[in-house]
Amino acid sequence: MPELSFTLISNHFKQYKQIENINVLDGNWSKGNITDIELRNYYDKSILTIVPLINSIQPSGQSVSLQSMSMNTPVIITKTDGFWDYDHFENNKNIIFAEKNEIELWISLIQDLLKMRSYIVI
């Protein structure tokens, strides 16, 4: 998706630093490389947050999702066995679940969200 700019906040994506439309920031919370205020500002300026996960029963990505949602930034997250609250998080209502980690699916979900961003109610 070369027409978009992405900021990756993680210590796992250094290999993408050479891609022109990707800004990679070391987001290792234990090192304190990004302050809470800076992180809040990234969420505030973002049009969406994407959280691709490997399926596991271990909860993962919920804190990122809640932080993003608290800034009214929509979230697309991989649907995993470890997601803890399917009763309150409804697909295409207050969150978007990606059923698989296939690049074509993620592109489609991002494009759909950008076309109809107002359908997310946080």
Walk me through what this model shows.
With 122 residues, this protein is of the alpha/beta class. It has a domain at 35-119. It has three helices and five strands, in the order E-E-H-E-H-E-E-H. The strands form two sheets. Strands 3-4-5 form a three-stranded parallel β-sheet, with helices on both faces.
Keywords:
single chain; 122 residues; alpha/beta; two-stranded parallel ribbon; 5 strands; globular
Distance from N terminus to C terminus (CA atoms, Å) equals 26 Å
Which spans of ≥5 residues are poorly predicted at pLDDT below 50?
none
Would you tell me the structural class of the helices and strands? alpha/beta
**Spatial shape:** globular
Task: Note the main sheet.
Answer: 3 strands, parallel
Mean pLDDT: 86
Strand order of the largest sheet: 3-4-5
What is the count of helical runs?
3
Tell me the helix content.
25-40%
Q: How many strands in all?
A: 5
Radius of gyration: 14 Å
What is the string of helix and strand elements? EEHEHEEH
Strand percentage, roughly? 5-15%
Please give a quick description of this structure.
The protein is α/β, with parallel strands linked by helices and 122 residues long. 26% of the residues lie in helices and 15% in strands.
What's the topology here?
Blueprint: E1 6-9, E2 22-25, H1 36-45, E3 49-51, H2 62-70, E4 75-78, E5 96-98, H3 103-115
Parallel strand pairs: 1-2, 3-4, 4-5
